[in-house]
Design brief:
The complex is a heterodimer of chains A (640) and B (251).
Chain A lengths: L13 H11 L5 H4 L3 E5 L3 H13 L2 E5 L17 E2 L11 H11 L6 H9 L1 H10 L25 E2 L5 H19 L2 E4 L2 E9 L2 E9 L5 E5 L2 E4 L20 H8 L4 E2 L4 E7 L22 E5 L16 E2 L1 H5 L9 H13 L11 E4 L1 H7 L1 H19 L8 E10 L2 E2 L12 E3 L17 H21 L13 H20 L5 H15 L6 H21 L11 H25 L23 H4 L1 E6 L8 E6 L14
Parallel strand pairs in A: 1-2, 1-9, 2-5, 9-17
Antiparallel strand pairs in A: 3-4, 6-7, 7-8, 10-16, 10-18, 11-15, 12-13, 12-14, 14-15, 18-19
Chain B lengths: L2 E7 L8 E7 L8 H14 L22 E2 L2 E2 L21 E5 L8 E3 L2 E2 L2 H10 L19 H11 L6 H5 L6 H13 L1 H4 L2 H14 L10 H5 L7 H20 L1
Parallel strand pairs in B: 1-5
Antiparallel strand pairs in B: 1-2, 3-4, 3-5, 6-7
Helix pairs in contact in B: 2-7, 3-5, 5-7, 5-9, 7-9
Classes of the chains: A alpha+beta (640), B alpha+beta (251).
Amino acid sequence: MMRQLDSKIPEGPLAEKWSSYKTGLRLVSPANKKKIDIIVVGTGLAGSAAASALGELGYNVKVFCFQDSPRRAHSVAAQGGINAAKNYRNDNDSVYRLFHDMMKGGDYRARESNVYRAAEVSNDVIDHFTALGVPFARDYGGCLDTRSFGGVQVSRTFYARGQTGQQCLLGTYSSLSRQVAKGTVTLHPRRDMLDVVIVEGKARGIIARNLLTGELERHSAHAVVLATGGYGTVYYLSTLGLGSNASAAWSAYRKGALFANPSFIQIHPTSIPVLNDYQCKLTLMSESLRNDGRVWVPKEKGDKRHPAGIPEEDRDYYLERRYPAFGNLVPRDVASRAAKERCDAGYGVGDTGLSVYLDFKDAIEKQGEKSIRDKYGNLFEMYEKITGINPYKQPMRIYPAGHYTMGGLWVDYNLMTTIPGLYAIGESNFSDHGANRLGASSLMQCCGDGYFILPNTISDYLADDIRTGKIPTDSAPFEEAEHGAAEKIGQIMAVGGKETASSFHKRLGKIMWDHCGMRRDAGGLKEGIELLNRLEEEFWKNICVPGTAGELNQELEKALKVADFFEVGRLMCEDALQREESCGAHFREEHQTETGEAKRNDASFAYVGAWEYTGRDKKPRMHKEPLTFDYVEVKERSYK
Amino acid sequence: MNFTLKIWRQKNATSKGSFKTYSLDDVSPEMSFLEMLDYLNKMLIEQGEEPVVFEHDCREGICGSCGLYINGRPHGPMRNTTTCELHMRAFNDGGTIVIEPWRAKAFPVIKDLVVDRSSLERIMQAGGFISVNTGSAPESNSNPVGKPVSDKAFDAASCIGCGACVAACINSSAMLFAAAKIAQYALIPQGKTESKERVDQMVKQMDAEGFGFCSNTYGCEFDCPKGISIDFIALMNREFFSSKVCKQRHT
């Protein structure tokens, strides 16, 4: 039966929704806050921002991360920047314009109210970071500098060289460290969350595995906040950190939280291509490079000449050819598909034929090498370190890579999942980016969620818990959850097979990349599900985990994550199958225009597909949250 | 390429470790150093042996997780390069590579090449922040910061907290780590207010954790994967001494 999803979007005009809704939310008094425990899982921008803001308010916060330090969460690797509607450039930017660009960038598959709110709090995020000492780029007068990013017409992206994510994360980490010192936040590093515990219908705790001792721990709280990031490592090769995984969010899904739009996953067009068979990571080259670099492949199939030896007339600048208005600056999804199209047609370069050139020759001739070095020096160095090739002398080779998941746990306007008391923030929820994320808006959303939105909405829920008292951990639900986690670990350890978790992960990633990657079709998706089923069967017969479960065991950690990815992959395929349209990053071969562009179907698919777990080996059930567009005009995205 | 690897193996914090020698063939020069270790581990697992445990995550030189002492140098032979960014083309075919964990009293070994760096965490908690609550920040541009100062603060802020400076130092000093944070905040107006208190607390914690003192060998700067300058230690010392002087005058 289709469930009625209550997104709790407040009434009233778009620009007033958040402020008027906030005033109506219940509060918890300072004396009562001390009696309330909150668990935050994940210490990226969203998690550490939320934990520190909640700690400042006086709640007892317990923070979990799998790394040895909160500062290492993968938000640290974001390069480009963070958007805000400050209008410092006097270029007529506004909250509405930022909202509008995000809606358009997301190809009209996001919820208007949430997107507007994300844009609304963006300015507060920048002010807070500045006060925290985050060294954003400044101009000579000492004011903050901005740049244009992601193909929008205003300069609203604040940045810190090519390390915006690192500098912002160190900002949230510093505010978190301050709360740890004050005793409002307790840190639990080197823990993997294995399950969420539901007591009488409410999220009341988690089961975590201590990665050093292997011990399973029970932690209770009045509310649980997941800030566990995306699931892009489903492709094995991606721009994510190797430890990034879906397991925490997935345990919530298995316990009844709906999972929305799982097939919406952004493939970033400019990553360094695969160079060897043992590669397990793709390094991103910031999108900003496309401001000056020109993308091309040879006009002749299989032209193996050195790029410098290929004259202008033999080069195909295919983005400029296909999209004369935007050229090399077309959005990420369009650029990625165009690269794949050229490579699939046999025009790709490099040994594997799976890359295209990003050439700075013209920019260097025009602006001089120094100017290019000032803008992109650290990226050029990074490229040379990895490939051994000097991009000042020879074009870079790039290829698309799995990057960011717009899909995630379904949340209402309060950022609460369908399980009462279980919240999802940052990349782990689905709410703000529709079918394709606009550049530099992920940092903005994570920090907005963590610092300014969740701390307000969560108090309304916790107001009912001021008399609850400590949640005991010896109840049956904790017992069962711990038992379930121990059983799963036991099953994996008992297989005693021959193939490593990484090897399975690599094979799984290839299935997903080939069948549910940049271009999808019904036949391929069905075949993908079939292949995943078979590989999963093989996994449970042949996985090899040496050592024991009672110690630091990285192979066990990996195997647990891979075991969940089979289900993630299948759900992605199911979701991609039901969405008989092309929108944003989701491209169905069956639904394209005559010129090969994405063809959206607003009449039938302007909804969020939220999936419900119905049991192991059972088909999940989809519920629809219809999307309405009252403040933007829904248009076809054209970059011609 | 073929290599002989001498790797530190240690079962846990309490057991005694030792070097174990492995020979590894068919290594591609395109492999990163950690991919080479992945390759070794795959072979070890398939032979029924326990893989070598090492820390890593982003594999693009920014998270600070990885850190191996390679042929007598933190993060290996290339300057301004983390272990994960290092590629096998930097080594001579047929050579021997010695791989150890960070060695410092304040970084006890957990297993094989993994050490406990929570001492750095506690230094940060002692004062590595600006005390501003969410919601109380003034408008960003109400407090301009000159570009040269801001750029210098940025140079300090680029520390990734890997601990290479400690491993490089003959005294196992964490002064470059602490100085980078202290300098970042001491340079900008937002951080000046509590600058004296900060340097006092962070230095105190550094001592309590068992890190040594600086004797100006420049080893930390040389081996810092982010090229952080030892000048920041001078800046920290100045802050530290002036905090003492100010305090005396105050009392």
